Amino acid sequence: MKIRLLPRITGWQAISTTLILAGTLAAIARFTYGLGATTNLTDEFPWGLWIGFDFLGIGLAASGFTIVAAVNIFHAKEYEPIVRPAILTAFIGYLLVVLVLIIDLGRPDHFWHPLVMWNPHSVMCEISWCLMLYTSVLSLEFAPIILEKVKITWPIKWIHAISLPLMIVGVLLSTLHQSSFGSLYLIVPNRLHALWYTPLLPVLFFISCIASGIAMILLESLILSRGGRELLSTHLRANLAKIIAITLAVYFVVRVEDLLARGALHELTTLTYYSVAFYTELLVGFVVPFALLLSERIRTSRLGLYSATLMVLAGFAFNRMNTAITGLEVYPTQTYFPSLIEIFIMLGITALGFTVFSYVVKYLPIFEAVEEAGPQVQQEAATGRPEPIYLTRDDGGMESS
Amino acid sequence: MLIDLTLCMGCNACQAACKEENHLSPNEEKNLSLTAYTALNKYSDVYVRRLCQHCDVPTCVSVCPVGALVKQGDGPVAYDADKCIGCRYCLQACPYHVPKYEWSSTKPRIQKCRFCAPRLAKGQLPACAEACPVGATLFGDRDELLLEAARRLGAEPTKYVPRIYGKDDVGGTSMFYLSSVPFEQLGFDSRLGRVPLPMLTMSALSKVPNVLSVGGVVLGGIWWITNRRTEVAAFEAAEKKGETPRPEEKP
Ligand code: SF4
Ligand code: SF4
């Protein structure tokens, strides 16, 4: 597998190294010259691309809590092989978001203030706390993987002993955190466009993050099982795809019902800057992938899943950027487009994320556990289920549930 | 403070006095900025004085994660730059677009009207109220000023639109306005309503303890049930095979 991946990684490496370098330079500029000179943020538009990026990072990191909950709380043990990649994704996602937040803050040197100066009325305060606590939970969930590698085993027992409460706390924190990113905008009913502003924002943010989190891990499992070895059987992948489809459907219904209830549907009858953005988001991210995933053929084909998950993620990105940017623009007088420095910092950080991911995957037992667990999981599935599930390799039209 | 727009003649004395009091560059400005804590917006022949409304339930105070903004009992909404982390949530959330940010600084702060807190503490009037030559800006006790406003409305119902803006808009503010022109035509946001904006967030935030406690119990319960089910199933399957059950392995 390494041999086959190597040339690819090198190609990527060149690109990502360049991006990381550019991002670092951009970050240096941002710290030397301040936000005004380096970003397109203004008093009218105090939050921009970076906040949108935080939403994305956190949303993709939702794979961490959904998969952990599915496997360890709902005991869907057959998904065990993707637990570690999911935790790794979440961990990296959260660290990157913390990094972006620190760059985004006007006073990065004060970033620790929310930990000692509380304001329980502030969503931002809740977010800082969740961010910090959940990152700690993730580092504990991730620690055994490193410890295994360096062969220090005694703390692993400790972590295992508290693993259940740890996981429950992690799931709860994520739930709060994902939804409170939506709550951030509850306070701007006068600014955020009616197509996005709704008291249900936290609920909608939560539902959509489940779809994007699972789509992310599904995409990863597709990419990572390129080397001939399957991380998840076609059947399990199809099941995940089904969960995504259901989540998308729930989201769609809630979203449209809400528009209906608030009388905002008429915004969609004309083609405006906003309605176009809305349609793009809903079609790309929700309607089309849902329609795709309804088909058994697509759910069991790699190409089908690639396209569907990529669309879900793109639509998710649209949704968050629309909430954070488009919906707040006053078109055409007050619009915002990120500066090059903002963009480079974001790209650099994204590249950093991918690089770290590929290195960790290379040097830490993210998948080795899978190989050990593989037969055991199969056996468990075979013995533990009243109806045995056939864990066959790519065999197209398998369907058992 | 009571601001009677029908009296204001646009002399800009309030801004000049404010700039002097706060040691800001003395040029005349048309909009709120880092160097103008108050400014006059002209709408045909009406001048509208903009400044921080020092809301009774201030949105900016509620959103600030570190409590850098606080509502002081006697009215002013004060800012502490030493606490501020620069998240700019207050800029985003203030319904009147009041706080301005020192974008060009590497140690940026928020700037906005401070309601002349130091002067009030000394028993003086705010600089702008003192400077107004025609009494278009009156300083006083909130309740008394509301009575005065109501009296003016009652005395000249044809002159004013029947509304004291700020009496209970976004939950009431320390500044209120009387006008002869409907407020919607003067750049006052008609979408704001009377409910203080922080309430919108509170309805979500107040669910946090519930999510934690109920969620914790539910998840624990689910774990217990599904764990039990797996154990039972493993046991039954093992019995069928005539083996002794393997103890459930925790991941
Ligand atoms: S007007 Fe804006 S800055 Fe002033 S107190 Fe109200 S919310 Fe805060
Ligand atoms: S920018 Fe400063 S004052 Fe404004 S909400 Fe953030 S921390 Fe508070």
Structure, described:
- The complex is a heterodimer of chains A (401) and B (251).
- Chain A has 401 residues and is mainly alpha-helical.
- Chain A folds into 2 domains: 14-187 and 338-368, Up-down Bundle (Formate dehydrogenase/DMSO reductase fold), CATH 1.20.1630; 190-335, no CATH class.
- In chain A, 72% of the residues lie in helices and 0% in strands.
- In chain B, β6 and β7 form a beta hairpin.
- The relative contact order of chain B is 0.15.
- Classes of the chains: A mainly alpha (401), B alpha+beta (251).
- One iron/sulfur cluster binds next to α2 of chain B.
The CATH architecture classification of the largest domain in chain B is 2-Layer Sandwich
Structural class by SSE content of chain A: mainly alpha
Distance between the termini of chain B: 65 Å
What general form of chain B does the structure show?
Answer: elongated
Domains of chain B (count): 2
Q: Work out the helicity level of chain B.
A: 25-40%
Which fold does the CATH topology of the largest domain in chain B refer to?
Answer: Alpha-Beta Plaits
- CATH top level of the largest domain in chain A is Mainly Alpha
Helicity level of chain A, as a percent range? over 70%
Poorly predicted regions of chain A: 369-401
